[in-house]
Amino acid sequence: MKKFFAIMVALFLMIIVSACGNEAAENEQKNGQEIAATEVKHDDDDHADGPHEPGADDVCAFCNMKVYEKADPMGVFTAQAKTKDGEYVFFDDSGCLLNITRRDDIEFEEKWVRDYITSEWVEADSATPVKADLKTPMKYGYAFFKHNESAEKFISENSDKNPAMATWEQIDQIANERYMKKMKMNSDSMDKDKDSEMDGDSEEESGL
């Protein structure tokens, strides 16, 4: 009788231990899933709030030219902006980032340029611009630096490129001049086409 009772107690304890072990394993698995889900959400949030990376098929929102990716040597001159609607748009050069606001009368919530040294995104307003003899996609020739010290070092070590500190106001002035010149060229071209059409109409009328 005592032996039977001891066996029953042992079986009962085994059942309890097994149940506790399963519950602990389930809780651990559940906690792991919750942590993983939280990490994924944080990654998504970071990607949603911060700057994005352009894809192979992205083009400049202003001039419709190719936008270079980070791995490309010209990708260091790529810029981007976030609209108030949450849309991300890319630009192949800094001047295009400024000129689109003239053409489309648009204001951006955030703007970024790449650090010339690391190619990491930097808030445009806090970046230090440097004008130099650099080949950029639209020939603006501006590089940007996250730290002022990095800009000064670049200037001191690259005298052959005629580098000099610049400001966004200077870039905007150059961009505006180029924009106005392009608008005038387009206007002159339209007037020329219109005159040609009128001359053609006059010749037809004279022949009647």
UniProtKB/TrEMBL annotation:
> Per UniProt, which keywords does this protein have?
Signal
Q: Where does this protein have compositionally biased stretches of type Acidic residues?
A: 198-208
Answer yes or no on keyword Cytoplasm.
no
**Region entry Disordered: which residue ranges?**
185-208
The record ties this protein, via InterPro entries, to: N2O_reductase_NosL
Q: Which SUPFAM superfamilies match?
A: NosL/MerB-like
Signal peptide interval:
1-24
What name does the UniProt record give this protein?
Answer: NosL protein
Give the organism the record lists.
Mesobacillus selenatarsenatis (strain DSM 18680 / JCM 14380 / FERM P-15431 / SF-1)
